[in-house]
User: Fold these one by one.
Assistant:
Number 1:
Amino acid sequence: MIDVPRLEAGLPVEGLGEPLYVFPTIGSTNDEAKSLAEHGAPHGTLVVADEQSRGRGRRERKWYSQPGSGIALSLLLRPRSVGSNESSLTALGALAVVKSLAMRKLEAYIKWPNDVIVSAGKLAGILVETSWQGDQIDYAIVGIGVNVHQGSIPQAALDFPATCVDDALGSKVDREALLLDIIANLGAWYPKLGSEEMIEAWQQRLAYRDRQVQITGAGTKTVGRLEGLAADGRLVIQVDSGEKILVAQGDLSLRPIDSDGD
Ligand code: ATP
């Protein structure tokens, strides 16, 4: 179970994490945060669950989260800056996880657009959902799932390998401390949303740079060398003809296609 007094003692941090709602088990933390947002909950509201029974990835795919072993959180933001959009908020979530792992000397990378990986596989996923009023975001939910202990690694067959922070580090990580660091990093980077500094930090931790990759989506497939990020966060891919194309975030899956390891 989550140590609630420890979370309460560490929050709010960087203006985030108040009010705090902690559930032993819940359908989806994103759904709960959305419902709170619809009822007027403030910027910084945080929903944490020990277990999700209907955790979601993108395209309504399942995100497995087992009790006592992972982090499942959803943070409600009411962004005011023009740099706010689903793409920059997804990057914010991934960067906050990567920076928190770096504090533990674990080098993790962002599998564009929304996954955090190490060479052994995926250890975290980000799901951002937004509600708009005209051309302004009314609220955004930044959902983050992290596999911390071994019990969080799904038993189900996955099309991309899964791992956990403990295995990647070779030692047992303090789940509450990691959660608090993720919130602190979200708060530290939030004012820099979409900035050059943030794009650069993201770029530094972009997985598969200079590797051949394929990006598949609804009926589309792009193959080429992953060059990095454009200034606006789109992915730069050099296709075989030599042409560079920019890929915007969407319901896309990125995979390496060479075989020299991750
Ligand atoms: P990809 O880019 O790898 O195709 P995605 O980013 O589109 O995946 P998401 O929708 O973000 O995937 O996440 C859902 C997918 O992640 C699931 O379909 C499943 O394969 C995988 N998954 C679900 N739970 C976990 C978990 N706890 N750890 C690692 N992977 C998971």
Number 2:
Amino acid sequence: MEKLLITGGQSLRGEVRISGAKNSVLPILAASLLNDGEVILGNVPHLQDVTTTISLLTEMGAILSIDEKMKVSINASSVNKFYAPYEMVKTMRASILVLGPLLSHFGEAKVSLPGGCAIGSRPVNLHIEGLKAMGANIKVDNGYIIAKAKKLKGAKISLPIATVTGTENLIMAATLASGQTIIKNAAKEPEIIDLANCLRLMGAKIRGDGTSEIIIDGVKSLSGCSYDVLPDRIETATFLVAAAITKGELTLTHTRPDTIKVIIDKLKNAGANISINEDKIQIKVNSQLKAVNITTNPYPDFPTDMQAQFIALNSIASGKSKVIESVFENRFMHVQELVRMGADIDINGNTALIRGVKGLRGAPVMATDLRASASLILAGLVAKGETVVDRIYHIDRGYECIEEKLTKLGANIKRLPQ
Ligand code: EPU
């Protein structure tokens, strides 16, 4: 397994271009299954999860091409297998996003039920119940969700939890259903708006995205479109923390500062100087960071996908802090690895209590999920000596060219072969 070797101590300086959002491109790729035209996507990040989704769509019979600038073109008119096998779903839970589009456009879908996950049990019951409310006949057999529907019907769906991919699956299913669908307590993440923007270009009738009530009026068919994916707010925020933790000075370009207001506020509270100019963010830190308290919650609150990175930051900031994880039940696997690097952290239920230490020491550590990997890399950048992060296939799922980008900014990081 490949590893990353980081020798800490360099302040990051320079300019970094932010890539397209993983959590936008995955539902948008799935949405290409809703029409027979050509969907052309720009700002697609080169990520393992994108490669997995492209393989999944190709296996189903879609025709895909990618140019050297990662412009992806998809034509799903030849799709004739409505199947997402366990082998794919187990490497990428977001494969569940093909369920709604397949069922709505082709009337059937067989999608492996995702299993447990390093960050919690992560059930998909709300995806299934929502589709059932739209008239789908769904059973779970041999670990597979087997769904059929001659024609989905619009429905009023009230989600007990504002699930992100659940909301996306239901929006996509509703675009081709007969009549109106109202999703109450919908997720409000920017990636939901991005998906809705792309679907509207295909001809879908959707309003209310970005609020907790989304209304979709079903249409007979959708057509192809050309669309550029939203910049990645979690990659943006991770680079901001990288600048802060190393007391550096970075300019982030091609991003969307409005999607990370809460992160910018937290970093300012921690002592960072931040200025925003349209799609650019500049950050400079030259004094000791102050620890900040955090509670994760759905958008627009603090994202769970930045919790691990802020624990790394708090671990070397001055003062005590409390980080409460409210979205996932088991998302603290990075903590014991940070403790091995000298961090002083106790876990009590869903709360991490962090006492800032003067510095971290390099150590061999193990990544357990995507954002945990980011947290360990951040810790490695500031630790004294060498940190070797194992199982970095997790990082390749969601951060484009991470070591190339960090190297360009002055980090001492290299990939060790298997
Ligand atoms: N939940 C249920 N039942 C369901 C669906 C969700 O109980 O049917 C619960 C989950 O167990 C969790 C909560 O609802 O406690 C929220 O989960 P959600 O469904 O919103 O998460 P998701 O859609 O599976 C997406 C992102 C995650 C991100 C979460 C929360 C994608 C592809 N994934 O997951 O991203 O952490 O929303 O914002 O969009 C990551 O990028 O590293 C990542 C894990």
